[in-house]
Write a structure and sequence with these properties.
CATH architecture: Up-down Bundle
Mean pLDDT: 84
Number of helices: 18
Order of helices and strands: HHHHHHHHHHHHHHHHHH
Number of strands: 0
Number of domains: 1
Low-confidence stretches: 194-209, 418-424
CATH class: Mainly Alpha
CATH superfamily: MFS general substrate transporter like domains
Largest sheet: none
Helix content: over 70%
CATH topology: Growth Hormone, Chain: A
């Protein structure tokens, strides 16, 4: 936390407001994680239809992320944060207003825009503000809003649904989004940094990324995006089906408690992982995060007691706490401010696409083989992500293995490119 003491008063105020708004935003989102699949089930949807409705959330993410990324780069980060919180405050009324599967899909697509906007603006703004030498630490601390929100939201949502019903639950979700909006309004919108006329400009011009397809095709972005896609399949399976899997078993373990345990685990590991990555590199922690997702899915595949489900939640939380925040930090290392929003949007869109595919695809598999074996298939898919990162994360196999195991720096990080250019 020492890094925060070096910031001026206005910057600390902005970070505090951002942190509070992020906490409220994620509490709003996650209050529906264990409850919305049950609501869709109660209105008569099949397993596959539940998967389609839940997965359509990612359609809104995918369709809006590229535009929102450009908007964040061209108009500033605050505009995307405002869009995200406005949608979060409006969308829950859509669930309250309809029980039609078709309309629920449309509401879910609209709701997806909220995370696309908020996470793009939030991540880019924090990366802009954080000094390079403490970037992992600052992003790690500021990303604690996610696990805290994911700890508060599901427990609160599950309690409200059980005691007061779905109507009050959706009103609560909307209210949390509205209060987050009030916070974002007070954030000072810093200008997007212009390209500095320095040697770093000359080094970076050789890698200049000019449009969506060039960014996506570049190896420094393509491989992380593929990894996020494969992990997104697992994340989508867990978030969509774990509550229904628990409901189908005789195990006395609440779906809300699963997400709360995962969030606590995610919080605990983020406290030190960001700072440690500044010293040991991002690759080691990304590898650890992917491995945790594989292990969590294996545990769910074999789960037959509350202890198994609790352990799976803890491991899944550890995976999310390291992988996503470290992937964002790594992409910040590899980008300049004036295109950081687009690069974040494209990389995280891989996760969105994985989640979008996961719900209908694995929902269909669940119809055929059941929820348990579906998680086994998810473990196999995530193992592919681990192999891809171990072998393709740098310029060649040897460097990839060394980077992924924390034995070498990131060859694509801009500060490393500058150092190598000066040596030449």
């Amino acid at each position: 936390m020492k890094a925060f003491n070096t910031f001026d008063t206005e910057l600390r105020r902005n970070l505090l407001i951002l942190f509070t708004a992020g906490l409220l935003f994620w509490s709003s989102m996650s209050s529906l994680l264990p409850t919305l699949p049950l609501y869709i089930d109660d209105v008569g949807a099949s397993k596959q239809e539940i998967g389609i409705v839940m997965g359509s959330f990612a359609i809104g993410l995918l369709l809006s992320r590229p535009t929102l990324g450009r908007l964040a780069d061209e108009r500033g980060r605050k505009i995307t944060l405002l869009i995200g919180t406005i949608v979060a405050a409006i969308a829950p009324f859509g669930y309250l207003a309809t029980q039609s599967i078709g309309l629920l899909i449309l509401v879910r697509i609209f709701h997806g825009i909220s995370i696309a906007a908020f996470t793009t603006g939030y991540s880019a703004l924090i990366a802009d503000l954080a000094p390079t030498e403490t970037r992992g630490e600052i992003i790690g601390y500021m990303s604690l809003t996610t696990p805290l929100g994911l700890a508060i939201g599901p427990a609160l949502g599950g309690y409200i649904e059980a005691t007061s019903g779905y109507g009050i639950l959706f009103l609560l979700s909307a209210e949390l989004g509205f209060v987050a909006l009030l916070g974002i309004v007070q954030v000072t919108n810093p200008p997007v940094q212009a390209r500095e006329q320095t040697e770093e400009k000359d080094v970076y011009d050789g890698l200049r990324l000019r449009n969506f397809w060039q960014i996506l095709a570049s190896p420094q972005v393509k491989i992380p995006t593929i990894v996020m896609l494969l992990v997104g399949l697992s994340l989508g399976a867990v978030h969509t089906f774990v509550s229904l899997f628990l409901k189908s078993t005789d195990v006395d373990f609440n779906g809300g408690l699963f997400f709360t345990a995962a969030a606590i685990s995610s919080f605990c590991i983020r406290v030190f992982a960001g700072k440690a990555s500044d010293r040991f590199g991002r690759g080691l922690f990304i590898t650890f995060g992917i491995f945790c997702y594989v292990l969590a899915l294996i545990l769910l595949w074999q789960a037959d007691s509350a202890m198994f489900f609790l352990l799976a939640a803890i491991v899944e939380g550890a995976g999310g706490g390291t992988l996503i925040s470290m992937m964002i930090t790594m992409m910040a290392d590899r980008s300049q401010p004036q295109e950081r929003g687009q690069i974040f949007a494209i990389c995280v869109a891989g996760l969105d696409l994985g989640i979008a595919i996961a719900a209908p695809l694995l929902g269909t598999i669940a119809e055929l083989v059941g929820y348990r074996d579906m998680f086994g298939y998810g473990a196999a898919i995530t193992s592919v992500a681990l192999v891809v990162f171990l072998t393709q994360s740098s310029k060649d196999l040897s460097n990839s293995l060394r980077f992924a195991l924390g034995r070498a720096p990131d060859a694509y990080a801009l500060n490393n490119l500058k150092v190598r250019s000066e040596e030449i």
